[in-house]
């Protein structure tokens, strides 16, 4: 059940409309950075393997098989080690993920400002996708925000800015919020899995030792 829950959360994060709209974008020959998906794929793999390993442990307990319970324990140790490694990788790269996406947005924004209507450059399309998906407009620079606001082909949020300038969000801020929120969910899921795994390892060893001792008599 825990494996199924983790798999469900991972698939939801993988197919979330906001992240897929942004991370599938392409600027010329350059693809949007998709480092974020590495963590998601690890979570999907862990969830799927946990479901299989959980069945193995359940069947081993019913059959009172020391071999199956030992295999269950070994698989859990390997999964736990992989999860710790993935957690360390995620912690190290959590700021870099948002930074890479912001750099990709800035490049598209600069191309959109310089592009002519007939150049065939897709910078405008990329920027508009960011603006519509994240409900924002412009990079971190105030000058560039104002510039983009007065370009109707890049941003349709002029009226919102004039009504509530203090509540208006630039895209750098929205990108940070998007990925910090998603990584927060991944972190919670990883901690829950780790706690469950620790209990599973303890209980499987206790059961295995109990079966071994009972077989003596």
Highlighted features:
217 residues, mainly alpha, Cd81 Antigen, Extracellular Domain, Chain: A, two-stranded antiparallel sheet, 2 strands, rod-shaped, lipid-binding, cell membrane, disulfide bond
Q: Would you write up a description of this structure?
A:
The chain has 217 residues and is mainly alpha-helical. The protein has one domain: Orthogonal Bundle (Cd81 Antigen, Extracellular Domain, Chain: A), CATH 1.10.1450. It is 78% helix and 2% strand. A hairpin with a 2-residue loop joins strand 1 and strand 2. The mean pLDDT is 77.
Helix/strand layout:
Blueprint: H1 2-14, H2 17-23, E1 26-27, E2 30-31, H3 36-63, H4 66-114, H5 123-134, H6 142-149, H7 158-163, H8 171-216
Mean pLDDT: 77
Q: What is the CATH superfamily classification? A: Tetraspanin
Q: Report the total helices.
A: 8
The residue fraction in helices comes out at over 70%
**Level-2 CATH architecture:** Orthogonal Bundle
Largest sheet, spatial ordering of strands: 1-2
Q: Helix-strand pattern, N to C?
A: HHEEHHHHHH
Gyration radius, rounded: 24 Å
CATH topology: Cd81 Antigen, Extracellular Domain, Chain: A
- Give the class from helix and strand content and strand pairing: mainly alpha
The biggest beta sheet reads: 2 strands, antiparallel
Q: How far from one another are the termini? A: 35 Å
User: Briefly, what CATH class?
Assistant: Mainly Alpha
Number of structural domains:
1
- Unreliable parts: none
Please tell me what the overall shape is: rod-shaped
Number of strands: 2
Relative strand content: under 5%
